[in-house]
Design a protein that fits this description.
The chain is mainly beta. It has one helix and nine strands. An eight-stranded antiparallel beta barrel has the order 1-2-3-5-6-7-8-9.
Length: about 120
């Protein structure tokens, strides 16, 4: 009986979790104005994969992605004018709104991203 209750609680928590998988269009305010980025997110259990694209940094593959309920985190490695740039992202999905903070691995600038699900 105890096992059944635990399974029911696990299924209920999974059903209440946000639908993170899909395509998201997000913007952040950078030092030179608004920056746009598209995130294509895929979820398999607690693993997050996919890719992200922006006009400034091009396409990057998501690495080390994790999902915990409505929370997500991942990293990318981008090419910025011939220089490798590592960024980490962490945030939360609330309904159809994506909130992320990105930080450079070297401790540089961080950006606050807000996105809407498009698919």
């Amino acid at each position: 009986m105890k096992r059944v209750l635990i399974l029911m609680a696990a299924f209920a928590a999974a059903a209440m979790a946000a639908d993170i998988a899909g395509t998201w269009k997000a913007t952040a305010e950078g030092p030179n104005g608004a920056i746009e980025r598209t995130f294509v997110l895929k979820v398999d259990g607690t693993k997050l994969t996919g890719e992200t694209t922006s006009t400034m940094l091009g396409k990057s593959t998501i690495t080390d992605g994790k999902v915990d309920g409505d929370n997500l985190s991942f990293g990318i490695t981008a090419d910025f004018q011939g220089t490798e740039l590592k960024l980490s992202y962490k945030g939360k999905v609330t309904g159809t709104v994506l909130h992320l903070t990105s930080e450079r691995a070297d401790g540089g600038q961080s950006l606050e991203w807000t996105g809407k699900k498009v698919q």
